[in-house]
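help with this:

***
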Amino acid sequence: MSNSSLPTLPASDRPEVAARLRDALLGAAFTADGLLELLGAPAYAALARSETVPALRATRGDTPLETLVRLFLLQQPVPHARVEGVLPVAECVEGGWLVSVGADEVAATVDVRPYGGPDGEDWFIVSDLGCAVGGAGGIGSREEGVVLGVGGASTTLAGITVRTPVSAALDLGTGSGIQALHAARHATRVTATDVNPRALHITALTLALSGAPAADLREGSLFAPVRDDETYELIVSNPPFVISPGARLTYRDGGMGGDDLCRSLVQEAGERLREGGFAQFLANWQHVEGEDWQDRLRSWVPRGCDAWIVQREVQDVTQYAELWLRDAGDHQGDTAAYEALYDAWLDEFEARKVRAVGFGWITLRRTDSDAPSITVEEWPHPVEQPLGDTVRVHFDRVDYLRAHDDAALLAAHFKLADEVIQEQVGLPGAEDPEHVVLRQHRGMRRATKVDTVGAGFAGVCDGTLSAGRILDAIAQLVGEDPVLLRDRTPAQIRLLVEQGFLEPVG
């Protein structure tokens, strides 16, 4: 379907109406905290799953907040007289935020969902009606131009993004504008692109209603609207990364063969980054028969860039097809049509010799080093969001290790990172453990095995002594040749620094 079958959106060139609407929403405590207090945790969580019955039960009263929840979150018509004391109704109808229904009711034209910013900001994410929850299992809409709200992918990308101040940021495939909204906090200028003009319109509404500066909005696919001479210190994208036969849904299907859209996005980002700048994406990639998936991703990294690529999840092709067929609601329609679509997905994967699909994060950093660092790893375990600082520090460690050979490491001072614990694993009653594990309780929450020397070394690192002096002391304690210990330990020190267990001092 075309965008013409979707409801008319509010005017995006009436910032004064958005400002008055924002004041009214805040005045009624229509915020993330206000909703949690009104609805309670179970009903609040149910809304994130697109389940509205608990919220309907919790908003049977006639307070201003209950009125706004029914109007903007539950998309229920509300009597005009009930809304009149809460919102500037005439202005909202004239500006397109509300529409008259029947003789004496009004209804919302868009979903408006409170969203708490990282520093407690009260923001609002605008999306199409019934589309506030993005991602698989969410909306079940087949509208080509539909614009989703906030989903797990959106918040994941926002959480991993490096938030240092920048002069220029670029949001590719902006959708409802959540990444542009986050970027507006620390970027002097934000440019947002989208192939869907409806998404650009909704992004303008999201920014205005959240009290954020307007962005430079450009229609076109990915980098197409960006001029050749434009570069950025931050590029972010939650692109339409779904690997599908065809491109039925603009918000999720890339429209290129296989994972070509994600590959092109990564490869083209390098020349758009300023020195030291970051490009951060979510992506899907194919696991192809006879090919190492890590080698596949390494080949995507553009020249002149360090990279950190983390695979968070892998699905076989049947799981993947079912996930996205359900996303579009195809499982609720005609059985024969569903089976034909399913078969088409499997035909596409078979033709490309795809056995599974990976999902994860890709971060690039522009570097002038002659030896760029490319780390590709699998980490499906729980992490602690936000991870933006963790990502930034990862690349700081890359720089440090690149500048320090083994002799320099032995001369350096280190301290154990905060909230790292040691676990000893072995049989009960055994005199010595089978192995020792260091485990982080922050950031990536990594765990790594170390030998007794590595454990002893990490345990006494407080920044006072150099690594070499510590190893000499350990050699004396265990009766080992200090020269041999100095020769074999730097590799372990390098790994502990790389993974964030040890931090350089000074």
Observations:
- Residues 335-351 form the longest helix (17 residues).
- The CA atoms of residues 58 and 503 lie 50 Å apart.
